[in-house]
Amino acid sequence: MIVRESNNYVHTLAFQLPKEGKICCGDSFYLKATEDYFICALADGLGSGEHANESSSAVSAIVEQMHGEDVELMMELCNQEMKDKRGATVSILKIDFKNRQFTYSSVGNIRFILCAPSGSFIYPLPLLGYLSGKPQKYRTQTFSYEKGSKFIIHSDGLLLPGIKSLLNKGQSVEDLSRNLESYTENRGDDLTYIVGQLF
C-alpha cells in the first residue's frame, strides 16, 4: 500500500506491507497536510495480526480526530486508548510551516531521522517501552528545520544500515522510496515507512 500527502510545503509518501503470511498489518499510520502544518503518526501494535492492528489503528484514529492539538496531548490520549488493548509503540511528528519547526515524540522502537541540505542530521532518541494505558512519561522535542530537508520515519520491520547516506542523496521522495525497495523483501515483521521532503 502506498499513500501520498502533499501541499506547497511538504511532499510525503507512506509505504506499508504486512508481515509475510499475514493479511492484516499490525502497523497503522496517519498523514495530513494543512496550510499551517503537517502531522503524521506511526504506530506498531505489539505482535502481529488483528490484535496488533486494533491497537495501532486506535492510535491513528486519535491523531485523525485531534491533529490540531499539541503532540504531547495526543500522545497522552493515545496512551489512554491503549487500556485493555495489547499496546503499541508510537511516534507523532508535527511540522509547523510558518515557524519552520517540527515537534516529535516517540515511545518504542520506531525510528525517525531528518537530513538537512547543509548535511546536518536530527535523530531524536525515542523512549524505551510502549504505550499500554499505564502512566507514562514522554520525551517531546521541538527542532528547527532547513528548507529542502528530507526525513524518514519507519517501524522496526525496515532494517536500514545506511540511512544517512540514503537521505543525503539529492533525490525526490519517489526516488528515496524506490531505493528502499530492496530493504522491504524477506519481511519477518510488519513494515511501514513514511518519507518526506520540506519546501
Automatic annotation (TrEMBL):
InterPro entries: PPM-type-like_dom_sf, PPM-type_phosphatase-like_dom, Ptase_RsbX. PROSITE patterns: PPM_2. Pfam families: SpoIIE. Signal peptide: none annotated. Coiled coil: none annotated. This is Phosphoserine phosphatase. The lineage of its organism: Bacteria, Bacillati, Bacillota, Bacilli, Bacillales.
